Amino acid sequence: MDFLFIFSLFFEFLALFLAFYFHNVRIFFLSLSLLVLRTAYLFSPVFQAHLFLSLLLPLIFLLFYLKNFSKFIFSWQNIQAFLLLILVGVLALILPQNTHFNATNLNYELLSFYTPLNELGFVFFLLALLFLGLRGLKNLDFIPLLTLFGAYVSFLIKEFWSFKYFEFASFIFCFILLFNAYKMLFFDSLTKFGNEKKLSLYLKNKEEYFIALLHFDELSKAKESYQSLILRQIAKILRRLKAQIFFIDKDFILIFKDEESALRHLGYLESLLKNTDLNLENESFKLEFKLVWQKNEGNLWQNLQSLKEKLLKT
User: Fold this and answer.
1) What is the pLDDT of residues 229-275, one digit of tens each?
2) Phi, psi for residue 259 in degrees, rounded to 5
3) How many CB atoms sit inside 10 A of residue 214's CB?
4) How many CB atoms lie within 10 A of CB 272?
5) Concatenated DSSP letters for 62-105?
6) Which of 109, 247, 298, 304 has a 20 to 30 A CA-CA distance from 147?
């Protein structure tokens, strides 16, 4: 089981580094809390340190998931989180060695159906799990629920109680951070469609395809705040199409396998846009658009230049 301990420790440091690098404040403090809690194992037996962690971990996770953090890690608004972790670190060095503290955690008889490592800590875990689950149903975000379970899993099975603490929450944190980095690199944040890098990657080694460009004149003239609202509504409409769609320089690029597919989808798209009203500040309006398309004539840059020339002629 030493492998799981090393696995957890590695991903906790990795998650802390990635969260700092990508400025994800919440994951930074959650990862830091896991490392701070580990100080309980420095001078105390494993079982006594387990009692301490199983009691405080659900409370810290719940608190950090509910707290409104500043966008900057080292800011005055986040000083409370740092102070809390310092206090937790001090308690982690003292309380696990306190006989009265350990005896108190073992004397509860709250549950009859299951004997957990720490009954009070298990109750805190269930309450935190319930709260994050209900919050997840409301926000459609179950990552907090999953990470709390991953952080607490080694306390749920009796066979693991004699081993060093391990968890899977930090692995989930790393996956989330790297996946978000991938989306930032290859996808537009507003429309959620692939960007130029994603399009270049998609077209790699493809020779037979048709490419279309959808242009809206109003986008370049509208205010930036209005552009965002308009783009989101257009993107919602375009998702009805079964086509590969990308967003480059305020234009939508569509890729089709053959001419028949291009004609069918573009005909439907043209009809859809002409008969769909967009809403902006309680006013309905129709966007003027231009749609041009062609067969692949070379590389991506040549295709886009050719489409833009056609656009000027329409």
Assistant:
1) 888 888 888 888 888 999 998 899 999 998 888 898 888 888 888 88
2) -65, -40
3) 23
4) 13
5) HHHHHS---SSSSSGGGHHHHHHHHHHHHHHHHGGG-HHHHHHH
6) 109
What does DSSP assign to residue 165? P
For residues 199 and 245, give the distance between their C-alpha atoms in angstroms, rounded to a whole number: 9
Structure tokens at 71: 């966008």
- Residue 177 tokens read as 């951070």
* pLDDT tens profile 139-172: 888 999 999 999 999 999 888 888 999 999 999 9
Positive/negative CA dihedral, 69, 70, 76, 77: negative
The first and second tokens of residue 253, run together, are 């690029």
| Domain annotation for the chain: domains and CATH numbers | 2-185 (no CATH), 189-313 (3.30.70.270)
Pairwise CA distance, residues 248 & 190, whole Å: 12
Residues 6 or more apart in contact with residue 244 via CB below 8 angstroms:
194, 202, 254, 255, 256
* CB neighbour list of residue 278: distance below 8 Å, 6 or more residues apart: 230, 233, 234, 284, 285, 286, 287
Report the first-to-last Cα separation within the chain, whole angstroms: 68
Question: Do 251 and 215 form a contact (C-beta atoms < 8 A)?
Answer: yes
SS3 110: coil
d(CA 170, CA 217): 46
